[in-house]
Specification:
The chain is an alpha/beta fold and about 750 residues long. It has 24 helices and 14 strands.
């Protein structure tokens, strides 16, 4: 049978057989592996509800190599996923690959785009033997295989039609058999290409998300998640991490297949056609390529910039929806639903207006593109096919190179021309499809450039945020500020340097100083109260003490390191996603709680100290998972913040108006309990009743000069103030009899009027 075929058909058949042999082992092994997996799943017993609750509570298991095994409950069982965090050395090494770009840079297909893309690909593909690289190699193999099979199908199509025209029944039946034989690897190849493209996109997204999360959610002294908006000038980071990374991976995985496969098609199909078209036909073919590229390049809009603007507007609209969800209660109290609707509608209209403008731009582009790809290329194809017929001396030119077979007539020119026409036509149609996808890929490349610029902006901003200065070393555990200016942080120096000269004025480098030359030293056992009118910088002092803001004015800060040294409780209580137990031990995790050796009995004592001992019984136990932000009242959430202080037992606790919604009696008991535990308190409050629990009072003036005063509570000056208050109260008490007499007179007058 093989001897009766021409060499090209033999090669196509050999490729098909080779592919089938390669896939045979996998096709046979798939059912075996599937049945084995189904058997293991079926025989594996389901875990109990207690084990599921334990897995939900534990979340992960620490491994000796530093990785974490996530426990994921799924369909009555627990799946385990190993996650290796990105090391600090890797993050520092990658910083040099992400230099900042100018704010005036516009995304386009240039050297900057290639540099940004390669920098991101180094994260997505960590090594040549990674899973992502293996998927890419497999994807490339199937793309090449599909092109080879397409050439074989085109030749076989021409042979079948030739045998049909020449009434060769045996050859026709053999061709049909080969057709079905080629269908097996062809259909499997198409399915694998789609599967591997989706798999590649998912693997890249997972890799980029893990890297970005490790970089973004960094601990002190980086705190990039806290500083990226204020010092890096990057808003709507959630849009970058969630939507932009996903869109980038989908676009990149699609671009790879839409560029490699059509490019390979152009090379192979052109080489195949050149054998039958001759030199003139091949020259006209390349001329057609050149004219098409020039036309489409001239009419292609800046899709990269349009895609970047669309992503930014999408992020603004998404941020607005998130804001309403977070602040729904406050909006409801004010009755601001209509106002919020108008704000969101305005953001949505900006987005839709931009999207509609893109659609309008695409009308002219797609009209030109369809005309060139479908009709111009089709007309060019017919002209090219006619060249061997009209402009060559041999009118029977075909794809065969061996001459006629024994059962064929030598002068069967119609069948040979039909074979040439059908094969060339199929190749030209495939060639036109490849050219069309390449032209479409140019538009997709421009959109990919816009997504690459946004993702690169996120990574370069996070990488170039300078770390916060570490606290000055101290021989003893004290909290001290030495000649420190308290001011609002400005844009970090690397980002100012990256701005254009016209945009890097003094407003970028200077900030508002709230408190000037602040100096004090607080040892353990000396409790400090910070007071002053609203907006004078009391919370700013807490941020500097906690290490969230850098000290200005050349001063230095000393404090114990870690949450065991200084623990901050903000006014707005934060409730973490998790169980009731997680609310108390935050930011510790359940494995850390178990490792600490503490018990539920100790947690109950902590809740009793903050008057929340009823919570476990009311909410259903320690492992109950709810939306605690909505379940607990404002006072309960603030008392939960104090419970975290008693759990972690820090040396210093900064309490920033964290008991404003708590009654005075419960507030007093919590302060007394904290002092009995040896916790030194730094309280920010306007309540005079809290002064009794402190030894020093820091008052910040509200006149805009940055003045401040520090005095010890109980000094001669403080006693004189108390004496003046006592005298004032005694004078008021002396007038009590007079006011009581006046009260009786008023009551008599009211009685007389009633009569």
């Amino acid at each position: 049978m093989l001897k009766s075929l021409d060499p090209k058909s033999q090669r196509s058949l050999i490729v098909a057989l080779f592919t089938l042999i390669m896939l045979r082992g996998r096709i046979v092994d798939i059912p075996k592996g599937l049945f084995a997996r189904l058997r293991s799943v079926a025989l594996r017993p389901e875990v109990s509800q207690e084990e599921l609750a334990q897995a939900l509570q534990q979340v992960y298991v620490d491994e000796p190599d530093g990785s974490k095994t996530l426990l994921v409950p799924f369909k009555g069982r627990i799946s385990k996923v190993t996650v290796k965090p990105t090391s600090e050395s890797t993050l520092k090494e990658n910083t040099r690959r992400f230099p900042l770009v100018s704010a005036s840079h516009k995304p386009s297909l240039d050297k900057t785009f290639l540099r940004q893309l390669f920098a991101i690909l180094r994260i997505a593909f960590t090594s040549w033997h990674s899973k992502e690289s293996l998927i890419l190699v497999s994807h490339s193999f199937f793309l090449v295989l599909r092109t080879v099979l397409s050439v074989g199908v085109a030749r076989l199509d021409g042979r079948i039609v030739r045998d049909l025209v020449s009434a060769d029944g045996l050859g026709f039946l053999k061709g049909i058999g080969l057709w079905f034989l080629l269908a097996i690897p062809s259909t499997y190849t198409n399915s694998m290409i789609r599967h591997l493209q989706a798999k590649l996109s998912l693997r890249m997204r997972t890799r980029l998300n893990r890297y970005t999360d490790d970089l973004y959610l960094s601990s002190a002294p980086d705190l990039r998640y806290y500083r990226v908006a204020l010092e890096g000038g990057l808003d709507d980071v959630d849009q970058y991490i969630t939507s932009d990374i996903s869109a980038f991976c989908d676009a990149l995985s699609g671009i790879y297949g839409n560029v490699l496969k059509p490019s390979l098609d152009l090379v192979l199909f052109t080489s195949q056609l050149s054998r039958s078209l001759g030199i003139r036909g091949t020259g006209m073919l390349f001329l057609n390529y050149y004219i098409t590229a020039k036309i489409l390049r001239a009419v292609t809009p800046a899709f990269g910039r349009l895609a970047a603007v669309e992503a930014r507007l999408e992020g603004e609209y998404r941020a607005g929806m998130g804001r309403v969800g977070r602040e729904s209660e406050e909006v409801a109290f004010y009755g601001g639903g209509l106002r919020e609707r108008s704000i969101l509608w305005r953001a949505y209209l900006r987005l839709i207006k931009h999207v509609n403008s893109i659609y309008k731009i695409r009308i002219a582009y797609e009209w030109t593109e369809d005309f060139v790809i479908k009709y111009l290329w089709s007309a060019a194809g017919y002209c090219l096919i006619s060249i061997p017929v009209f402009f060559t001396r041999r009118r029977h030119v075909g794809v065969q190179a061996q001459g006629p077979r024994p059962h064929e007539r030598v002068d069967n020119e119609v069948a040979n021309r039909t074979e040439t026409y059908i094969s060339s036509r199929r190749l030209l149609l495939s060639l036109a499809d490849a050219g069309g996808r390449l032209m479409y890929a140019y538009k997709d490349l421009l959109e990919l450039a816009g997504l690459t610029t946004r993702l690169y902006t996120l990574l370069s901003t996070l990488h170039n945020l300078p770390p916060l200065p570490l606290p000055a070393p101290s021989a003893k555990d004290v909290v001290a500020l030495r000649n420190v200016d308290i001011g609002i942080p400005t844009t970090a120096a690397p980002f100012i340097a990256a701005e254009d000269e016209s945009e890097s004025g003094s407003s970028k480098g200077s900030g508002t100083v709230l408190v000037k030359g602040l100096s004090f030293e607080l040892e353990q056992g000396e409790h400090l109260m910070i007071t002053g009118s609203n907006g004078v910088g009391k919370t700013a002092i807490a941020r500097v003490l906690a290490g969230l803001w850098a000290a200005q004015g050349g001063g230095e800060v000393s404090r114990p390191w870690g949450k065991s040294g200084v623990f901050v409780v903000p006014q707005r209580a934060y409730m973490v996603t998790g169980s009731l137990l997680d609310q108390i031990i935050y930011p510790d995790t359940y494995p850390q709680f178990v490792a600490s050796g503490k018990t539920h009995k100790e947690l109950m004592e902590i809740l009793a100290a903050v008057n929340l001992a009823y919570l476990p019984a009311r909410e259903g136990g320690w492992t109950t998972r709810k939306e605690w932000r909505d379940v607990l009242s404002g006072g309960e959430k603030q008392r939960m913040g104090m419970a975290r202080v008693f759990y972690h037992m820090p040396k210093y606790a900064i309490l920033d108006e964290c008991t404003s919604a708590v009654s005075s009696d419960v507030e007093g008991r919590m302060y007394e309990h904290a002092k009995s535990l040896g916790i030194t308190l730094i309280t920010i409050s306007l309540r005079p009743t809290l002064m009794r629990y402190h030894t020093q009072l820091l008052t910040v003036a509200g006149d805009g000069t940055g003045r401040w005063s520090l005095k010890r509570i109980g000094t001669a000056e403080e006693l004189m103030d108390l004496d003046r208050e006592i005298v004032s109260l005694e004078n008021r008490l002396a007038e009590v009899e007079q006011w009581e007499g006046r009260l009786k007179e008023l009551e008599q007058l009211l009685s007389a009027q009633e009569v």
